[in-house]
Amino acid sequence: MAGVPQPRFRGDPRAAQDAGDLRWAQSLRSERAEALRPGVLSDRTGRGEGGRVKAENLVFSELRKARVLVVGDVMLDRYWYGEVDRVSDEAPVQIVKIEPDRTRETPGGAANTAANAAALGANVALLSVVGDDEAGRTLAKLLERAGVEATLHYDGDVPTTVKLRVIGRQQQMLRIDFETPPSREVLLDKLADYERMISDRNVIILSDYGKGGLTHITRMIELARAQGKIVLVDPKGDDYSRYVGATIVTPNRKELQEVMGRWKSDDQLAEKALSLRKRLGLQALLVTLGKDGMTLFEERRVHHEPARAREVFDVSGAGDTVIATLGAMLGAGVPLHDAVVAANQAAGIVVGKLGTAVVHPEELMAELAQGR
Length: 372
Fold this sequence. Notes:
By secondary structure, this protein is an alpha/beta fold. The chain has one domain (13-75, 108-159, 181-370): UDP-N-acetylmuramoyl-L-alanine:D-glutamate ligase. It has helices at 13-18, 22-31, 110-119, 134-145, 184-197, 217-226, 253-260, 266-280, 318-331, 336-350, 361-370, and strands at 67-72, 74-87, 94-109, 123-131, 149-155, 162-168, 171-178, 203-207, 230-234, 248-249, 284-288, 294-298, 302-305.
């Protein structure tokens, strides 16, 4: 991509061959360590003393060079805020009195990922499916306001996925989900658009919420990797074979336990995670661990990035913020380890906000400058 710094990698193509991804191994052999094609990430860092990223080395104005395509399950997040002062006579439940002027709507799911990447300054496109209804049109307007170039397929047979959260006393009291998987015909139309859209993007984020919008994810990964794109996957479910060949997969603790069981120690986690990384042919597996930070598993090393202790209001959408920040940074040519540091700090910022939210460059710059 013209104008985008070309990342480099010092690696051994035999690892990819062991993972069964022969085409990937052949591409590594052909270009060697100092002149690889896009889609292979740099392991060099811009860290200063103590191994921390220097804020001045992350030039946020450069993030506009990141051309990110987000594909996946979108939803509309609705928040109703109210007061709780009594228990119902009809059942042992609290009554939340909603005030009309205390409601909020935000992009959710893959739409939140796209909004987060755009908030950091990346050039972001989104491809997804919504219902031909009020919620779908509201979501389209919110994405336009967020600076996201959204290509939405309207499916008249299913409603837009909506997650309604009722908030009282500064905490979530109830969540109601409205969702139906999109039709096969609409998904096939979306795949055709995907093939057209990936050509001028340098990072592809596939946000899988298990709602049916990524039925063709294996093919999507193949198409993007064939063009040398960085492919990041936010996974769902226990069948990770669908993600073979992606660059990085970013499960949280619970999601990883679904696919490889629980672990009793950090060593056991590392053993299982490294095995999974190799089996899927990934460059890296990034596991988010909530208050314990996140750990990056690569072929030759394991790096843990601790979280800073802070008050947590809401973890909704934290995974979206992580993968969005990672994608924006990598798309701008930021080295992988520095991108992980930034993603970790961004997650820490967003959990301090109530509801799905975005992180702005000045917030992230301040965190990185503090070196925490």
